[in-house]
Amino acid sequence: MAIRGILGQPFMSLDDSIDLAHFLSLDDKIWEGIRKSKSSPGKYFPESDIEKIPLDSNEVPYHQIRLRQEESWEKKNFSLSCRWTEESQNFPELVQWLKQLPFSQLGRVKIFINHPGAKVQMHRDHNDYYLKGPNVSPHKHEFLWICPDPTKSLYIYDAENQEKYYINSRSAFFNEVDLHASDPHQNWSYSLKVDGQFSSSLRDRLAIPHDVYY
Q1: Could you tell me if 184 and 194 are in contact, meaning their C-beta atoms sit under 8 angstroms apart?
Q2: How distant, in Å, are the alpha carbons of 60, 139, 156, 173, 189 from that of 198?
Q3: Which candidate among 17, 37, 90, 151 keeps its CA 20 to 30 Å from the CA of 6?
């Protein structure tokens, strides 16, 4: 399956649309919060069963900390369907930063922690794809992905053309139906995914029509 992308692009940088400098200044405090928090091992859907892309089943791919918990996957982009978790209290400065993002709805928030030498395995974030396959309906799921480490190499993968589109920014928005992964990284690293709905001003800034489906 070729990538769906966002308005003809594999991803959109959000670096100029958020207070990136403030987020980067919180790095030490975020690591402190990670050390204080309970994390759980993550897992991926069996992508290899769908498109025959092999996965390393012997590797725990990542750990995660939920700062905002959703009622259900279908409601992860809505403020009223998500709640702040106990772990979020270990990240007071980050929580304040999250609250000022240019979102009209602040949904689920997760921190992903990768071990040294680990890679992000090939996967999709859109649950419906694993039920419906390539014919999954267009959607309106918007989010911010952000990582403070510029050497972490997350990419969007076009399986049809066997092409990798590396994200060359600290933060981005891409189509969660699309395959993505990262190369192994030598250091501990973390990234955030902030689900929600973009504000009208952010959509205008990114030239995203207000009635668009992805």
Answers
A1: no
A2: 32, 14, 21, 11, 26
A3: 151
Q: Is 67 helix (H, G, I), strand (E, B) or coil?
A: strand
pTM of the model: 0.89
Model confidence band, residue 53 (pLDDT cutoffs 50, 70, 90): very low
What is the spatial order of strands in the sheet that 163-166 belongs to? 163-166, 154-158, 179-182
pLDDT at 50 over 50: no
Residue 115 CA to residue 130 CA, distance in Å, equals 27
Distance between CA atoms of residues 23 and 147, nearest Å: 10
Residue type, 14: L
Per cent of the chain over pLDDT 70 is 87
How confident is the model at residue 43, as a pLDDT?
A: 62
Separation CA 179–CA 159 (nearest Å): 8
CB atoms within 10 A of CB 32: 14
Separation in Å, CA 214 to CA 5, 37, 52, 176: 8, 34, 25, 9
Q: What is the pLDDT of residue 58?
A: 38
Q: Taking Cα atoms as reference points, which of 120, 198, 113 lies closest to residue 153?
A: 120
* Residue 49: partners with Cβ closer than 8 Å, 6 or more residues away: none
Q: Please, are residues 96 and 22 in contact by the beta-carbon 8 Å criterion?
A: no
